[in-house]
Design goal:
With about 130 residues, the protein is of the alpha+beta class. The protein contains 4 helices and 3 strands; from the N terminus they run H-H-H-E-E-E-H. About 50% of the residues lie in helices and about 20% in strands. A hairpin with a 4-residue loop joins strand 2 and strand 3.
Length: about 130
């Protein structure tokens, strides 16, 4: 059983999610988010909202991205493309493989030293699993 990331907070996860999404999704300041939550009867400080955004911003972004990709995979219009670019790392040529969906979100990125069919198929296998 995985531990909840909200286990040390007195505030409910729904309130934390609402505060973070209001701050990240809309061009609101921390004090504006505090005022909007206060209008809903939730008394929090703007510093609490900042702490939540720093701590849970990537967590909520990952959940949203995962939920969106799962719903898009069921859609017949879902497509993704494999892109390969060479980059130099410490003076040596490497290949950056990226699987990108039709909305431009990067699904998988992989760096290899060779530009072989094996490298491309490895990136495709990882993309199919995720």
């Amino acid at each position: 059983m995985t531990k909840s990331p909200f286990r040390y907070f007195k505030t409910s996860p729904e309130v934390i999610q609402l505060g973070v999404l209001m701050y990240v999704r809309f061009p609101l300041s921390l004090r504006n988010v505090e005022d909007l939550l206060h209008e809903r009867g939730i008394d929090v400080c703007h510093e609490s909202v900042r702490l939540w955004a720093d701590r849970f911003g990537t967590y909520f972004a990952h959940k949203i991205r995962k939920r969106r990709s799962e719903s898009m995979r069921r859609s017949p219009q879902w497509r993704w493309h494999l892109d390969e670019v060479f980059v130099k790392i410490r003076g040596e040529r490497h290949y950056l493989w990226r699987a990108v969906d039709h909305e431009g979100d990067v699904l998988v990125s992989l760096v290899t030293t060779s530009r072989a069919k094996v490298s491309a198929s490895k990136c495709m296998r990882i993309a199919m699993k995720s």
